[in-house]
């Protein structure tokens, strides 16, 4: 009888330990914790299928603001069967974080099944690319726009090595992108680098990395980013103007109509923070770029404002809205989609 009791207690103890272990991994930890990052081999395996959705944080910031959280969550919901990989420079394999009460966005994202957070190791990333020699010689502290330039370089290397889709952290996904090799038009004949996707080892991106070095000038805003993409697009393709809502094709690439990601152009970015009589459907869009770099005024999502951006949060990143905007007072109506819990 005593042995049976001991055995039963042992089983209960093991189950309880397993439950607590699982809870700490998916809730941001009960108290202070060391994050269970995957190995470099695990990262390689995750990215090797060429289907990842990739985000980057090149500053040391550890707690994503609401817009970043919304971007990552919305992608996880739209692509539930694809890994959403968020590289953060501030992370390392020895990073420790306090409880989710002080890092709610980080905890929220780490609890989503198909979201994976990894340290951004630029030197390792640039290995076997033209960017390594540039990176090892550059004096980052003397660079005027280093956070942006290093992000421009990193996104090229990641998508060239592994394939997938890169998105800026102010892009809210609203429906799947049906293309594999594509650039996104910001305006007629001018490419963005805020969203793009390619299969692994695509020669277009290799030539972009070469051009990055040959025409390097970080003092010119966008020279290593959208201007670079536009320069290379013109080398590869002889494109005319968009006809109505049709995308353009060149070789094995698509140049997607501005409506796909930029239905609200950058001079009108404030419209996202305004109340509309009727919210637009964005039926011709795959995702929405909110032009956060233009938002020097620091406009934010205000609970109960009924602005377009608040309604986008409600619909496309409800966990972010509930935890970071709404607070615990009242539940968000509607169900969470796949990829969220």
UniProtKB/TrEMBL annotation:
Specify the protein's topology with respect to the membrane. Answer: Single-pass type II membrane protein
Residues folding into a coiled coil are: none
* One GO molecular-function entry: acetylglucosaminyltransferase activity
- Main localization of the protein described in the UniProt heading: Golgi
- Identify the Gene3D superfamilies for this entry: 3.90.550.20
Any idea which UniProt keywords this protein has?
A: Glycosyltransferase, Golgi apparatus, Membrane, Transferase
A single GO cellular-component term from the record reads: Golgi membrane
Q: Which InterPro entries match?
A: A1-4-GlycosylTfrase_dom (IPR007652), Glycosyltransf_32 (IPR051981), GlycoTrfase_DXD_sugar-bd_CS (IPR007577), Nucleotide-diphossugar_trans (IPR029044)
**Its GO biological process terms?**
epithelial cell proliferation; negative regulation of epithelial cell proliferation; protein O-linked glycosylation
Q: Where is the Alpha 1,4-glycosyltransferase domain?
A: 198-323
Per UniProt, subcellular location reads as: Golgi apparatus membrane
Name used for this protein in its record:
Alpha-1,4-N-acetylglucosaminyltransferase
Recorded source organism is: Prolemur simus
Lineage, please? Eukaryota, Metazoa, Chordata, Craniata, Vertebrata
